[in-house]
Amino acid sequence: MKELIQALARTGDEIYAKIGRVVAVELKGMTCDVQPIDGSSKILGVHLQTDSDHGGFLLIPKDKSLVSVIFINKETAVLANSGELTSATFQIEKTKFEMTSEGFLLQKEQETLKKLMLDLLAAIKLMTFTTNMGPTIKLINEAQFTAIENRFKSFLK
């Protein structure tokens, strides 16, 4: 069985890799162009992800960063690694984790951790309690919750 799979995958092309600098990133097409450091011709249309339709791991390299490019055949190259990134995304079905210089995004379907945390803090700041003398009228430590809310806003996307 193993030999059969290997025979089907064999294209006759030698698989090899190159190191180069990113000269352009095309997010719409999910590709980048790379200038190899060995002086060979520019590699156009390097795929940023093996299968962008089904999630997985996606690295977006910074312009001019060093990257590793793997050729799976003579016409098709895929980004294997990057020295510097603008973002990294990991997605499994409808659950997504993304990192950028702006912060972290943790999302499941339409819900994000940031929205959940901000909604929780907003509800806490509106809390009232019934006491022996009637309902409370003001949250005494509201400033602490506002400070925590601002920390979440800058930490999460």
UniProtKB/TrEMBL annotation:
It comes from Pedobacter cryoconitis. The lineage of its organism: Bacteria, Pseudomonadati, Bacteroidota, Sphingobacteriia, Sphingobacteriales. It comes from the Bacteria. This is Uncharacterized protein.
